[in-house]
Structures are given as C-alpha cells and as structure tokens.
Design a protein that fits this description.
The complex is a heterodimer.
Chain A: H1 2-13, H2 21-28, H3 44-49, H4 54-78, H5 87-109, H6 111-117, H7 119-123, H8 128-138, H9 143-173, E1 175-176, E2 184-185, E3 187-188, E4 195-196, H10 200-206, H11 218-235, H12 238-242
Parallel strand pairs in A: 3-4
Antiparallel strand pairs in A: 1-2
Helix pairs in contact in A: 2-9, 4-5, 4-8, 4-9, 5-6, 5-8, 8-9, 9-11
Chain B: H1 4-46, H2 58-68, E1 69-75, H3 91-96, E2 103-111, E3 114-124, E4 129-136, E5 143-150, H4 160-163, H5 165-169, E6 186-188, E7 198-200, H6 206-219, H7 221-235
Parallel strand pairs in B: 6-7
Antiparallel strand pairs in B: 1-2, 2-3, 3-4, 4-5
C-alpha cells in the first residue's frame, strides 16, 4: 500500500514520540474547535445520562480516556493487518474488550461508583465518539498520533461532561462531588449545608432558593449542552461556517 | 484485498486472544467482586437502622455484621430454614420463584439492649425492580427505619425513595400494619391522612410510591407468622394469627 510507504519515509525523519505543534493540536483541538460533543455532536446519549452528579462524570471521563486512547493505539498498530471487510467488527471487539476491562476493574476497586454508572460503562461500547475516532483517525494514522488523538477527544468529551455535571449537581441538589471524600454541601434547607436557606444569613439572602428539580432530569443536560453550543459559537466564529 | 482464509485466521486469533484475556481478568478479580457485592448489600441493610452506614468503611460493616447481627432465613410459611445464611439469599432470584418456594431473609440486630428486626421486601417500581429493608422495633410493628433501593427509577423523582433522607426518615415511628391487620403501611399521594400508618408520597413519583406500598403489603406475611411464634415464646403462649 502506498500509505504505508509514505509512513515509513516520514518516520525516519522524526523521533519516536514527537510532541510538536501538530501533536499538541491533536490534544487541544478537540477541547474547543473540534469538540466531540458540542461541535461533532457525538456521544450525547451518555452526556445526558451520567451528568446528574460530578463524581460519575469524572469516572466516566477517565474510563473514556482509557478506552479511546488504547483503542486508537491498538487499531492503529493493527491497521495494515486488519482486513477491510471486517474492520468495523475488529474495532468493536477492541472497544468492547477495553470497556469490559474497565468494568471489571471498577467493580473490583470502586464498587459504589460501579453501581452508580451501572449500564453506562457498558454503553461506552456504543459511544459514537470512539467508533468515529477509530474509523476516521486510527485507521489512517500512526500509533503515537492516534494515541494522542484518543486522549484529546476523550478529554474534550470529559470536559463537557464535567462542566454540565457541575451545573446539574449544584443547581439540582445543592451539592458537589457527592459520594467522594471531597463531598461539598453548598446550598440546601438543612444545617449541614454551607448556605442554609432555613436559618441565619442563609435565610436572609437565600430564603427564596429552592433546588431546581429539572436539573436532575436528562432534559436539563440537553438544555445545558444547547446553551454551551450557543456560547461556544458566538465566541468562536470559525465554527459558525461549518454548520 | 485480503483473502478469505486470511480474514478467518485473523478473526479466530483475535477472538481467542480477547477471550483468554478477559477470562483471565474475570477469574482473577472474581473474589474481590463477590466480597464487594456482599458488603454493598450489607451496607444497604444497615442503613435502615443507621442512615449514616453508607459512609462506613467496609471493615466496620463487616464488624457490625459479625458482632451485632444474627441472620435467619424463613420459608413461605414463616418457619426458620436451617443451614443457610440470610446474606446468601438473592431476593431478585427469590422473586421469580413461586410464592410457596420463596425464602425470606431476616436480620436481627442487637445493640445496647435494643433489638431490631430487619425484614426485606422486593417489588416493582415504575421502570424496574425496587427493594427495601425495613427495621422493626421489638413490638414487631413500629418501624425504626427503612432503606430502599431501585434498579432504574427516574433520578429526582422515583429515585428519591433511595436518595431522600427526609423521606426515609418519615417512615420512623409508623406502624407497618394496623390493629386488625387489614391495612398495611401506605404511601399516599396527596399527603398522609392517617399519620400512624401512612407517609406522604414524593410528588412526581406516584407509581414508585405505590410500588413501595404494594411491596410491603405483599412481602411481609411470612415474617409476621414468624414474629407471632416469637411473641408466643416470649409470653409463654401462642398468640392467634390472622
């Protein structure tokens, strides 16, 4: 194949793990200009489902970083050997294996989070971002760059996930990081919250405040992501021409 | 283009490698998985008495279970079954059996002279199964606390049966059934009328609330039969059961 020949020629000039401008762009691009969620609008399903709380979102992001980086790496290493006719199946097997590894490890070392994420870990397999990156990037690029691309895209996904989760947990329940040792109780109607809306200064200034139950429902994530896309496009005019 | 034989060889090798890898990992971690699951279930049961139990460390949970909790298993007619621990009873499997073959786990928690009887129930919520552990006082009818769990109720609505501490606290002190045993503890939409035996439903989760009511009504009979015999032994005579 001509691609492979070109690869080999380029490889001779560069170090084994280059980290120049191009490679940095692989990581930073998906955070903004080419964000998988807000620009490519992929992976929305899990973004709506797991973002009720920050902790599961963080764990989900870490899981996706791991799965996407190593799936990209594996597929990229195998890319010249994978028969074209079955490449999608091969990609899915690689993804499914990595996801099962994540699931088994999580079940063994963080059972409560495993319970919280339950079905969504398994659903990483069907996350369009992963299959999309494997097909669009890893099948045509060398392992190191594919690995970086995987990390970049997963971080772009995780970034949105965590930001949405912060909004949803704060305004929906008045807490942050519930379930982790760093649990913060910020605003609510019992004395254990930092701003107690039923007594003292909390009542004077925030007596009117009630947690917004809508925030806990998946619909709220849809609105938040919508607002996100709006803000991002009004700030970043490059994106407006794409759509 | 690759030949057919190449494709078949590739797929076979890939599948074998992946299968071996996952099988190895699974067997390696199985023990930890089982232990985690057992502790998680125990934690759920303990939260019925102590709502802060979900913050406890695994070792503390084990310790409490070893020192303060006795485990019994009852059959459908309310007689104790020998040779099985309550924690080994899988309520999800039991629910699929015929009513006559079901086993019912009973935990008796003793601490500082007080005894609590923790009964388990399982039923249907709106989307999927819900379950609960209900701790009863020594009179076998006053509720000391509850813990609920669910598989897939709506976050913020039905899922509040597990998440809302206030709601769970509203069960405390209620009767699980009335004098004549015609009526069981009820989750009432629109607010409790009879405060001794009803609790307010959570707004927006009527069906999950009804699920809780039905679950309690349907799953308690064997326990009450057993409790009547216990009572009988204590007072030296058998009390008539309905």
């Amino acid at each position: 194949m001509s691609e492979t020949v070109k690869d080999v020629q380029v490889q001779k000039k560069e170090p084994a793990f280059p980290f120049g401008k191009k490679e940095r762009a692989l990581i930073t691009d998906p955070l903004d200009d080419n964000n998988p969620i807000t620009v490519q609008v992929l992976g929305i399903c899990s973004a709506l489902a797991v973002t009720t709380q920050v902790l599961p979102s963080v764990v989900m992001s870490i899981a996706v970083v791991f799965v996407l980086a190593f799936a990209n790496l594996t597929i990229s290493i195998l890319r010249t050997n994978i028969p074209k006719q079955v490449r999608m199946i091969v990609q899915l097997v690689v993804i499914a294996t990595l996801v099962t590894v994540v699931e088994l490890v999580l079940k063994a070392y963080s059972y409560t989070v495993y319970k919280q994420l339950s079905v969504f870990i398994g659903l990483i397999i069907t996350n369009c971002i992963i299959m999309g990156r494997l097909e669009a990037f890893a099948m045509a690029n060398r392992p190191w760059r594919s690995f970086l691309d995987g990390i970049g895209n997963a971080l772009g996904y995780g970034f949105i996930l965590i930001v949405v989760a912060v909004f949803r947990e704060l305004f929906g329940k008045g807490t942050l990081f519930t379930g982790s040792p760093a649990e913060l109780k910020i605003i609510g109607n019992t004395p254990e919250f930092f701003i107690n809306t039923t007594a003292g200064w909390g009542q004077t200034f925030f007596g009117w405040y009630v947690n917004n139950n809508l925030m806990v429902l998946p619909a709220a994530a849809m609105f938040l992501i919508g607002i996100f896309i709006w803000v991002q496009r009004s700030r970043n005019t490059k994106l407006v021409d794409i759509s | 283009m690759h030949s057919n034989s190449y494709i078949i060889t590739f797929v076979v090798i890939m599948t074998t490698v992946v299968a071996a890898l996952l099988a190895l990992l699974y067997t390696g971690l199985k023990e930890t998985h089982d232990r985690n699951e057992a502790i998680y279930n125990k934690k759920e049961i303990l939260t019925s008495i102590d709502p802060t139990a979900d913050k406890m460390k695994d070792e503390e949970i084990e310790q409490i279970f070893n020192e303060k909790v006795q485990q019994f298993v009852l059959n459908a007619s309310g007689e104790p079954v020998e040779g099985i621990m309550a924690e080994k009873v899988d309520m999800a499997k039991e629910r699929k059996k015929d009513a006559a073959d079901r086993k019912y786990p009973l935990y008796i928690y003793e601490d500082e002279g007080k005894t609590y009887y923790i009964v388990s129930a399982r039923g249907s919520g709106l989307w999927d199964e819900i379950w609960g552990a209900i701790a009863l006082e020594e009179d076998f009818k006053t509720i000391a606390g509850v813990a609920f769990g669910h598989k897939a109720e709506t976050p913020g609505l039905g899922a509040e049966i597990k998440d809302s501490k206030d709601w769970k606290a509203s069960f405390k002190g209620k009767m699980i059934y009335d004098e004549t045993r015609d009526k069981y503890l009820t989750v009432r939409k629109g607010g409790a009328k009879d405060l001794t035996i009803e609790v307010d439903a959570i707004s927006g989760s009527t069906i999950t609330g009804d699920g809780v009511t039905n679950m309690i009504k349907a799953g308690m009979t064997p326990y009450f039969t057993y409790f009547s015999t216990l009572k009988g032994e204590k007072t030296g005579q058998l009390i008539e059961t309905n």
